[in-house]
Amino acid sequence: MKSVVWDRELREKAANWAKKNIDSHNPDESIPSGRFFTGENLYWYSTTDSKYNLNPDMALESWFSEHVNFTHGPLRKSHFDKSKSHKIGHYTQMAWSNSVYIGCAILQTKKGEWNNFYVVCNYGPNGNNLGEEPYKTSGGSSGKLTCGAKDCSDPYGSKCKKTKT
């Protein structure tokens, strides 16, 4: 598994998109340097607690939670059918093995009594390419990897454990 590196150019792209506060993905997948095209995950959270500070892990956990809907294999167009209630795209982009650069930004806004947070993370090179697998597995069908706050001491790191199915 490759290490992920914080990328200032991707952070800047995320910050610029977050400032627009638009409820959709950035249609521009390029970056000024032209190194690669980008993937993107978005997360919103609102509360009436005026003193609330968002824990960024909430966004990561929300995206990662989609792993329960994903059966490993090449991505198909049907995986991204917006009419389906079971999403996988945030998880697969987050786990995409060739996406080794990440940059994120958080925008906080107040509207009336609402304290709103908007998280944008950009990944490079982009993932979620149809016909490709997000990552290679090992161990065949003898087990599956499980990660997460309940199973690992470092839920987004390299500490996973193999469990029998």
Tags for this entry?
165 residues, alpha+beta, Pathogenesis-related Protein p14a, 2 domains, four-stranded mixed sheet, two-stranded antiparallel sheet, 6 strands, disordered C terminus
If you had to describe this structure to a student in words, what would you say it looks like?
With 165 residues, the protein is of the alpha+beta class. It has 2 domains: 5-134, Pathogenesis-related Protein p14a, CATH 3.40.33; 141-165, no CATH class. 17% of the residues lie in helices and 25% in strands. The protein has 3 helices and 6 strands, in the order βαβααββββ. The strands form 2 sheets. It has a 4-stranded mixed sheet with strand order 1-3-4-2, with helices on both faces. A two-stranded antiparallel ribbon has the order 5-6. Strand 3 and strand 4 (114-124) form a beta hairpin. InterPro entries: Allrgn_V5/Tpx1_CS (IPR018244), CAP_dom (IPR014044), CAP_sf (IPR035940), CRISP-related (IPR001283), V5_allergen-like (IPR002413). Residues 1-131 form the SCP domain. It is found in: Secreted. This is Venom allergen 5-like isoform X2. It comes from Trichoplusia ni.
